[in-house]
Amino acid sequence: MKNNNLKKGVGTNFTNNDPDEARRFFRNKLKRLTNKVTTVYEAVFKLICDGDYLAIGGFGGVRIPVAPLHEIIRQQKKKLGFAGHVSTHDCQILAAGKCFNRCDAAYIVGLEARGLSKNSRRLFESGNIKITEWSNAALAWRFKAAAMGLPFIPSRVMLGTDTFHYSSAKEINCPFTGKKLLALPALYPDVAIIHVHRADVYGNCQIDGILIADPDIAKASKKVIITTEKLIPNSQIRCEPEKTIIPYFCVDAVIEVPYGSYPGNMPGEYFSDEDHLNIWLEKEINPDDFKQFLEEQIYSSKDFFEYLEKNGGLKRMRQLHMQEHFLDQEGKG
Amino acid sequence: MKYNSLELMIVVAARNLEDGAVVVVGTGAPCAAAMLAQRTCSPNLIIMFEAGGVGPLLPVMPISVGDSRTTYKGIMATTMTEIIELCQAGYVDYCFLGGAQIDRFGNLNSTLIGEYSKPKVRFPGSGGANDLASLCWRTMIITLQTKRRFTKKLDFCTTPGFFKGGDSREKTGLPPGTGPYRVITNIGVYGFSKKTKKMMLLSLHPCCSLQDIKVNTDFEIIIPDQYESTTEPTETELKILRQEVDPEKYIIGRE
Prior knowledge:
Chain A has 13 helices and twelve strands. Chain A has 333 residues and is of the alpha/beta class. In chain A, strands 1, 2, 3, 4, 8, 9, 10, 11 and 12 form a nine-stranded mixed β-sheet that branches. Chain A has a three-stranded antiparallel β-sheet with strand order 5-7-6, covered by helices on one side. The longest helix of chain A has 13 residues, at 136-148. Chain B is an alpha/beta fold and 255 residues long. Chain B has a single domain (5-245), classed as 3-Layer(aba) Sandwich (Glutaconate Coenzyme A-transferase). Chain B has seven helices and 14 strands. Chain B has helices at 5-15, 29-39, 80-89, 129-135, 168-171, 210-215, 235-245, and strands at residues 22-25, 46-48, 53-54, 76-77, 94-97, 101-102, 108-109, 112-114, 119-122, 138-142, 179-184, 188-192, 199-204, 228-229. At the A-B interface, α5, α6, β7 and α8 of A face α3, β9 and α4 of B.
């Protein structure tokens, strides 16, 4: 059964997958209960450096941390690396700011059923971005390996395809059955940014609905920035500890940002603003129009609240809340 | 009752999902087919989404495979790894993928057109497609049939079919017994020959001819002596599709 003719991908491994280096780092993370509440500006300014490798929580247009993403492009961070793990609107924002030069790509440049992002495509077709290919589960498992403190995790995906060829995975033989498996290197991001439903000031987080890869991303990343719809007291966390998805000792910064996933969907809270997302896609067709759009929407806004105001403010948020719950404007189901 | 080819494709796809099966779907036509199946032939169809949604009773078509519709009245909201691990463990009967470049062995390209180092067109990449087509027992593909899509040689093999045919899929290490099962297009329904794993006509749609297949395919599709004629959509199927599944005509209006 054993096969000695084992292949390996030709893609670059952008991050170090040595678990012992990560262990030393995690050992020194602050474990005391400390109030970590800060501002979006401060968190992005202090915790994200040019050249860092980022992981974004959520699912592209669902439960995404839009406020820090806007702040990253306002602060003109450069040469970032980026896990393109179903990155749709998040990829679109970072591409708009030309913030990254390398990307682990499982799903990039598209917005699922909404179509493709012209501006992201221009960037990825320029040849200026270094790309290593993956599948969605491969990236999710790479985070899981890191969260488990292992240098790699075996899997049975990607075998035989060009997706494997342009990845940095390696074929191995199972030491027990001899079967051919694909070893996926652990992925330890420098910084994770995750939007959650509720968190306390220390960073204990509760999430409603699907979790995607966020519990693993939080444990795998050296620094973690949390934006939350709502700050809750620590006593509430301690009343229902089974609801804690991310424990505080993984977290470095907490910011309360209501409607922080807008224009994305926030399960149970508000639906995505499809009109706004379609305007983004349309504006991207002409680079000059898009430049002006970004100036109006993001660069000239001093913070995320101003962006929300420009797009209909509370009235619009209420409509999206109704839409999320299939209610009409009188609030009836 | 009149119908367009997308409506026909979705109806045919829905009939292929038997009651009690487990299927992971993407957005668009695959999702519409699963919703129609749940409302017609397969009330116990378990629909799953790669982002973490399990067993929803879909009220409307999701826009994202992770939006809150994908857990509406569902049985579980979990992680992506848990969904794909269920596929890897053998629990999932079908995955249902949408349009891309396809070759005669059911290999798919959703990554790029042109050269890898400087592509002419960059598409999203695998997403969950490679995972699902590697691990689910049967891969269903629903796509429009044109010469450009049904190509002799993919620019990039994103997602596994039967590779070069024969036993080449199992030799790569992918789980035995998995692979492409049906390709549903606007012209017909195709399967794959048992031994060579080449694409083969199973059923030709009404008003379509063998000539249509030839004109719209860049490779040779096996035409067996006997093949079926696709049963037309019933009034009930069309009514449910139009009124309940896709009233906004997101998918069926694309023609």
